[in-house]
Specification:
Helices cover 69% and strands 4% of the residues. By secondary structure, the chain is mostly helical. The protein has a 5-stranded mixed β-sheet.
């Protein structure tokens, strides 16, 4: 019958019996955890502060809204700052951090970094066990080492944004889907649907990786026709779609469509420019090393299990489609490639197995040489990343932004050419500002205008529109002011400087 589940005999997962080899993945995980705990309490300026401080403002607003005895003025200010930020996905991580603030008895921003680190390291265990089951113990260790020690993974897994959390749930989804394909029980079918649904709820773009992997695993397990007749397949699909559909359609509605329309529809012309793909490859080379990605493609080709091999190939193609759907961000935002890290790690697992199998036949001397070479190859980028973490102290910068917020006029509207879309001043200075575009935004708007056939606004029109009903013009990005000579001339020749401090100038927009 279509609803019956069949249990095929399973190969016992490869797991060495020696005590040391049982401990090696745990030792690697503890090392990866300890590496990420370096400078735990530093302000989050080390990796995409725009994204992290945006989440910090949201979490702080939630915290003050839930805090029973909060100062009414601070509560209103924190809530107002939170509401000025648009919601791109369910604020699951931010809510968790706000609840942790309540439990800790105060706002402690490094708690968010600790959560992100734990999410990433927990995902590493699921990655290791998945690779161990479908490749070998050596393959699992290879995948885990890449996942934990890649410099991108070290930096990004410390960041307060949903990407470390969604990467964890992506790995849990792949793990449950693989167990479902192996065990073929209703229990694993429902678990896959629930976990996959939660993954897409946290960040819907995970669908580019998750959908091809699970679909190809299901087709490989039962065949397309048989899969379409099985109730458990439809139950898993329904559970997967239920949670994200309820939020992204019912809660976000037209905003979700407009977001996709802007970032994809406005930049699709990049698909036909060879320079786009060259720049994408340069980013991949910087983040992953192209030689390792080429090795990963070879690893997919020699993957020992047919179903996981198809699933991995599907995720590679899904990443390509993901980049085409977000052509602007895939070249400018490193964390847009973060969900690709476990895909590349799994792809390298078969090569780890081949290497260990080959070394088993060699004398101990050559095994030691190979181990030393691998250790040096992994230690060098880790050391560079570690020294980068400890080499900069951001505490003074956070204090400067806090002081700036106190020195700005308490009343009046401010338009600003400032860092990180205003979130540095928003978080540390408790001030919301209207943004004047930097060169990055001008380039983006120019690209969008050229693709749509529109004309970019001239300076005079833009200045009048952006300063309408504004009382002050704040500048903290002086390099950007130099890059916009028309703006610099207008400010210095027509408006008085009423305040000047550490890292900022404030102009009065009354001529």
């Amino acid at each position: 019958m279509a609803g019956e589940m069949t249990n095929s005999p399973q190969k016992r997962p490869d797991w060495p019996g020696k005590p040391l080899t049982w401990l090696l993945p745990l030792i690697l995980l503890v090392f990866g955890l300890g590496l990420r705990l370096v400078d735990l309490t530093d302000p989050p300026f080390d990796f995409h502060p725009t994204r992290q401080l945006r989440a910090a403002i949201i979490a702080r607003g939630m915290y003050y809204e839930m805090l029973p005895d909060a100062d009414p003025v601070l509560r209103a200010q924190a809530s107002q700052l939170r509401m000025t930020l648009k919601s791109y996905e369910p604020q699951v991580f931010e809510r968790l951090v706000a609840l942790a603030y309540l439990a800790a008895g105060g706002e402690t921003l490094w708690i968010a970094r600790l959560f992100a680190i734990l999410f990433w390291c927990l995902g590493g265990w699921f990655l290791f066990d998945l690779a161990r089951r479908v490749v070998s113990w050596a393959g699992g260790m290879t995948a885990l080492a890449f996942y934990l020690l890649l410099p991108l993974a070290i930096s990004a897994s410390r960041s307060f944004q949903p990407d470390p959390l969604v990467t964890l749930w992506l790995l849990v989804s792949l793990w449950t889907a693989t167990r479902w394909s192996q065990q073929r029980t209703w229990r694993w079918a429902l678990a896959t649907g629930l976990v996959a649904g939660l993954t897409l709820l946290i960040k819907v773009t995970a669908v580019f990786f998750l959908a091809p992997a699970v679909i190809l695993l299901v087709i490989d397990t039962w065949g397309l026709r048989q899969a379409l007749r099985r109730w458990e397949v439809w139950a898993a699909a329904g559970l997967t779609a239920l949670l994200p559909a309820a939020y992204y359609i019912a809660q976000m509605g037209s905003y979700s469509a407009s977001y996709f329309e802007f970032w994809t529809g406005s930049f699709y012309n990049l698909w036909f420019e060879p320079s786009f793909y060259i720049q994408w490859l340069k980013i991949l080379d910087r983040l992953f090393n192209l030689a390792l990605l080429v090795a990963g493609v070879i690893g997919v080709a020699i993957f020992p299990a047919q179903g996981p091999r198809k699933a991995l190939l599907g995720m590679w193609l899904g990443y390509g489609l993901y980049g085409l759907c977000f052509p602007f961000q895939i070249r400018s935002h490193e964390y847009y490639s973060l969900m690709f890290v476990p895909v590349a790690a799994l792809s390298l697992a078969p090569l780890g197995k081949l290497l260990l199998d080959a070394l088993k036949t060699k004398p101990a001397f050559w095994r030691l040489i190979a181990a030393a070479a691998l250790l040096v190859g992994a230690a060098y980028p880790v050391w560079i990343t570690y020294t980068g973490l400890i080499g900069v102290d951001y505490a003074g910068e956070a204090a400067a932004w806090s002081k700036m917020g106190q020195e700005l006029p308490a009343e009046g509207q401010i338009v600003a050419l400032t860092h990180d879309y205003g979130v540095r001043l928003g978080y540390y200075g408790w001030r919301f500002v209207h943004l004047w575009p930097g060169s990055e935004e001008f380039n983006m708007l120019s690209m969008r205008a050229s693709s749509s056939g529109e004309e970019a606004a001239d300076f005079e029109t833009l200045f009048q529109a952006e300063t309408h009903n504004m009382d002050y013009f704040l500048v903290t990005r002086f390099d950007q002011l130099e890059a916009q000579p028309l703006l610099k001339e207008r400010l210095y020749t027509q408006y008085p400087i009423i305040a000047q401090g550490n890292g900022y100038i404030l102009f009065d927009l009354e001529p």
